[in-house]
Amino acid sequence: MAHFERLTAARTIQGRVLEVGAVPSDESLLCMKALSGATEKVGVNLLGPWEYADIHFIQANGNAMPMLEDASFDAVFCNATLHHDRYFWKTISEMKRVLKPGGRLFIGAPVYRERRGLWFRILRRIPLARDLTFTFAVHRCPKDYYRFGLDAVREVFMEGMEQVEICDVMTPPRMIAIGVKPLSAPTD
């Protein structure tokens, strides 16, 4: 959560804020100090509904959130959720749908580590380790379907977004991608 706190604090986030895959505890990204200026905090979880601190949790699947209006949130967060989501692309589409133009989308997910640096040059010399790729461990909580490459993060998660930043934040490899929804739809 410290990485999200740092990246969120570097931007001014106010208004309505949504977290998809939120939990009713201090571990929710909605509890970050950087979101103290939010006027409303909403969490989406498969279970619920709940109230926790100043957060209203609704029971919903991120794949379909018809109870949330189009362009109704100033920021949308999702962390450590999409790799558990069999239809993650639907959830990404829904997050973009409910995000206001000019709003920020923050997504954290496990990625494959690109092979680089001294450590990988050493491993390439070992025949059985030549094709090793480092990633966050599989954990079945509740299911664990995916690990993402940086191309997927750039071209699928952040498709149609502007000012995209991808931050490699942890070992084992995880990233946080941040994008801004364009103020106007592109013309053909």
From TrEMBL:
GO terms for molecular function: S-adenosylmethionine-dependent methyltransferase activity. One of its GO terms (biological process) is methylation. The keyword Repeat does not apply. Keywords: Methyltransferase, Transferase. Residues 47-107 form the Methyltransferase type domain. It holds the Pfam family Methyltransf_11. The keyword Transferase applies. This is Putative Type 11 methyltransferase. The lineage of its organism: Bacteria, Pseudomonadati, Pseudomonadota, Magnetococcia, Magnetococcales.
